[in-house]
Amino acid sequence: MDRTQYGTIVKMFCKPLVSKVEGIDNYFLRELWMTILDATERSLSGILFFSPTETSFDKDINKEDIQFWFKKVSLCFVSWIYYFYTMEQRRDLINKGYLYLQGDSCGGRILDVYESLFGVKPNTQEVIRYSLGLKEDEEKALTISGAYEMAMDSDLKDYQTIGSELLENIWHENIKDFKLKSGYGENWDFSSIDNPLAKKMFFIGARLWQAHQQIIQPFLMKNPIGKAPKWYRIVPISYGLGSIIIMALVFYFFGSNIITWIIGGILLFIAWSNLKIGLFGSKKLIDELTQDKGKSLTKEVDEESKKFLK
Question: What is the pLDDT of residue 117?
């Protein structure tokens, strides 16, 4: 399968997922899941088409394989997101109803979206198993105390959990009784791993962790838990008021004539439309117009915006 075929299959699979996520009214929840899906797809394409020669993966995968990848990797990211937050932030995550993993129960709106996307409601063990290494690191304060080599060995447990599951079910590797060895050192010298299966498992885990660090973590740091961006409703209102001021200046400097009346009419239309959007538009409309620059509007928001232009 070449990249064009891969892109076609992924697009067909992701389109309904993205459509469901775009329909979420909550800004934080919607953009978090868009980020998770983005990181999930990028990590898969990176593994298929940009992996080193010694860890090349069979690219002949089907829609079911891609579905399995998205189902497991996105859940893995949710688990890592939970342990990205400090204990205090985690309480905020729980109190606001976004995610909780307590005892034998788990839930929250993040997992509700997961269930709506993949039709499966995971239990606590299914979620937490992907971050047992992170949990050990936190409980033993390995990274905080500077025990980086021990912390990295803990991370290997998470690499193995998700890596072995994907290798066995997508690439049909025999991973029975296989275990990643510890002791690769602080810098994790990839060339020192001589077992081909270990290289693949390590590469998958490292690639997913890289996606988590470079794509998901920046979103989490930029967006406080459950909070929408600052009050962007002022943006269309400012455009409206600005258009009125420009219209007044046109008449002031150029007087009343057919040209100024045409320009004034256009500016008045722009002003009136922006003021209506700013004052009466839905939160979702404001979010997409001001926050999702470069993206096409969803069908629902596009129809709403057209009403304000009438």
Answer: 96
Give the list of residues 6+ apart from residue 198 with CB closer than 8 angstroms, or none.
Answer: 178, 180, 181
DSSP per-residue codes, 296-308: PPPHHHHHHHHHH
Whether residue 275 contacts residue 247, with contact meaning beta carbons closer than 8 Å, is answered with: no
Q: Which long-range contacts does 47-51 make (Cβ < 8 Å, 24+ apart)?
A: 47/203, 47/204, 47/207, 48/6, 49/3, 49/6, 51/203, 51/207
- The alpha-helical segments, DSSP class H, found in 50-147 are 63-84, 87-95, 109-118, 124-128, 132-140
**What's the whole-model pTM score?**
0.74
Bridge partners, 105 (sequence order): 102
1 vs 96: which has the higher pLDDT: 96
Contact assessment for residue 136 and residue 125, using Cβ atoms and an 8 Å cutoff: no
Calculate the average pLDDT of the chain: 85
Q: Give the distance from CA 1 to its chain's centroid.
A: 26
For residues 7, 12, 15, 16, the Cα torsion angle rounded to the nearest 10 degrees is: -150
**What is residue 12's predicted lDDT score, i.e. its pLDDT?**
92
Would you place residue 185 in the very low, low, confident or very high pLDDT band (cuts 50, 70, 90)?
A: very low
Q: What is the token pair recorded at 259? A: 């040209």
Q: Of 142 and 23, which is predicted with more confidence?
A: 23
102: helix, strand or coil: strand
Residue 186: predicted pLDDT: 47
SS3 of 100, please? strand
Residue located via tokens 């039709």: 119
For residues 29 and 21, give the distance between their C-alpha atoms in angstroms, rounded to a whole number. 9
> Residue 253 and residue 48: Cα distance in Å, rounded?
63
First-last CA distance in the chain = 48
